[in-house]
Amino acid sequence: MKRRLLMLLPYVPWLLLLLFVDAFTALLIWLADTRAFYALSAVMVLATLLFFPVLCTVLICLESKREHMFLLFLQNPDKYQEECLLKAVSPAQRTSVRLLGTHLREMQDALAEQQMKLGEQEEYVESWAHETKTPLSLLTLLLDNHREELPASVSRKLDYIQSRMQESIHQMLFYARIRGTRKDHLFEPLLLCLCMEEALEDYRPLLLEKNFRIRSSLSEELVYSDRRGLHFLLCQIISNSVKYSSQDPELVIRSFQKEDRRILSIRDNGTGVRGCDLPYIFEKGFTGHSGDSRKNATGMGLYLAKETAKELNIELDAYAQQGEGLEMQLSFPIIDLTQRRT
After folding, report:
1. Computed from CA positions of residues 167, 173, 178, 184, in that sequence, does the dihedral angle turn out positive or negative?
2. Which helix (H) or strand (E) holds 226?
3. Is the pTM of this model over 0.70?
C-alpha cells in the first residue's frame, strides 16, 4: 500500500486540482439552482467516488509498467530495452532516456574491456609465478643435494633467499587471485596436523637456523577447507613468527573446540605487537612500530592472510602484547562430513 501511495505522489497536485474543479462546479450549480443541486448532489458524489479510484488505479498501473521497463533497461541497457522504455515514458523524458542509454552502454563496454584486461593480467601473473617456480625448485634441489659441499654461512644465505623468493611469489600469486574475478577453490576434508606439517616444512631451514622449538599438540582434527589457500594462510603466520622472533624462539600449536567452531591456535614468543597497533595489523601496508625489524616490512603478509581467510570462511584473529609474543587463532566452522556425503 505504501509503495502504491508513493507512485501516486507525483500526481497529487493534479488530483487535488480535479477535486477543486469538482467542488467549484458543485458550488456553481448550487448558486444557479438550489433544487437542481440537491437533485444532482447524489449523482455527483457517486461519480466522484467512482472516478477517482479508477483514475488512481490506472495511474498506478502505468507507473508500475514504467518502473518495470526501467528496471529491465538498467539490467540490460541495449537498444531493444531502450525502445521499450521510450514507449512507456512521456515525450519530455525520451531525450533523457536516450542519453542515459548511450552512457550506460559506454560504461558497459568500458567495464567489459577492463575485465578482459584484468583477466589477461591474472593469467600473466599466474604464468610468471609458475615459470619462476622452476628455477626456484632447481635452487632447492641444489641446496638439498650439495648442502654439505657449501660453507654453512653460504648455505644459510641461500636458504634465506630461497624462502624469501618463494614467499614473495606466493604473495603475488594470492594477491592476484584475491583481486581477480576467478575463484578456483577446492574445498575438501583436511587434517590440520598434516596441513601444519607441510607449512612448517616450507620454513624448516629458517626455523632450524633460528633454533625454533615447535610444540604441537595436534592430532586427527578435520576441517573442511581449500588445501592451497589454507597452506598459504599458515605459511604467512609462520613467516611472521620467524621475522619477529625472540632470542629463544618457540611456536606453540594447539587445537580446541569452541561452541560450533574448531580453533587452531599458533602462538609465538616473539616481539609481539603494541596494543595500539593490534587493531590494524591486518590492514594493507600496515607495519606498526614494534622495533627495527619492521622497518623493511611490506605490511602485505597478514593482510593477504586475512583476505584469504575471508574467502575460505575462516575467522582469523590476533592476540598480543608487546614483548610477549603473538597468538593467531584460525576459527573453522565445524561441518558434519558424514552428512555431506549422504
Report:
1. negative
2. strand 222-226
3. no
